[in-house]
Design brief:
Strand content: 15-25%
Oligomer: single chain
Distance between the termini: 12 Å
Largest sheet: 7 strands, parallel
CATH class of the domain at 177-300: Alpha Beta
CATH architecture of the domain at 177-300: 3-Layer(aba) Sandwich
Helix content: 25-40%
Order of helices and strands: EHEEEHHHHEEEHEHEHEEEHHEHEH
CATH topology of the domain at 177-300: Rossmann fold
Number of strands: 14
Amino acid sequence: MKVVVLAGGTGGAALAAGIQSVAPEHELTVIANTADDDEFWGLLVCPDVDAVIYRLAGVFNERAGYGVKDDTFHVLESMDRIGEDAWFRIGDQDLASHLVRAGMLRAGCTLTEATRELCRRFGVAVQVLPMTDDRVRTRFATDKGELSFQEYFVRERLAPRLSGIDFAGLDSARPTPEVLETLREAGLVIIGPSNPLISIAPILTLVRDKLSRERTVAVTPIVEGVALKGPTVEMMRTLGPAPNPVEVARMYGDIAGAFVLDSRDRDLADSVERLGHRVIVCDTIMRDGGRALAQAVLSAT
């Protein structure tokens, strides 16, 4: 079966790695968010795309939550010594990926082509697709002005008061032919347990009308009122809707026929079912690299 995962850089990527591990017989594709991308020192950095590649390659830095495990930061330290603003921490091995990507883009390749080449170099057989080859950038409206994704998350550490989220360029962006073909042929599409407001929303804006409820399942990113990674709950509380699995299920109501609810929130199953979802209850916390969750989702769909 052809399986597609829509992913941000953490939960969705971990689930994809779990599927790769427990069900190698499936043809897996990951469509990754690119709205978090940004430019540093003339290089395009694609955090979500790279997190997916690194996880699938087995080199992701789990402790830091980004980059390559056991990386060094000699280049960054040198940049800091000569007066460059070095708040965005790019490791030396991570930098190699950005250099390869930048060279390919300058030579006229698309982001999709550059991503395919990086997968090849990291030995990743799974197809990883950026959601678009067009430029899309997350912009946060805050009490300190408009901030990019990396400025808000990394430099400011989420401190400014958030009042809105926009995706610059998304109105004119188009999904790639590869994304459209993959979704057309998919037997199952899984919306990963990533932040629905910033990781999944940009992807869905591009492909929502290409998804079928009968072939789409969404996984909750919230367990017992807490997001397993990142500020999902805080963002939902600030901007709406209410930060709970029922409201996440409501957000996906028109595109996901099934919704995966954590066993700790099983008392919410009836509320989710009333929204028209078939509910799958299991342990969604991925302590084993996503294998158990992947098995539960694949077995129940």
